[in-house]
Amino acid sequence: MSLPPDVLAGARGAVSAGVAESLSAFVVDALRERLSRTHALTELARVLGGPPPLEARAAVRRNWGLPGPPADLA
Q: pTM (2 decimals)?
């Protein structure tokens, strides 16, 4: 597996800052977080009978002060 240089540098910086014990631990945490979001969105879509409308997701992100979604989750 390879990572884009900017992503790798950011992850290494997080490790240097003590955010994670190691690069591997940082990657595992990131993957777990992403899997959790994916599972939550899948469950929400199941309950609602489809994904929440893009406008509703954008409103929640704005209200919570979150950045826009990754391109594959838009």
A: 0.66
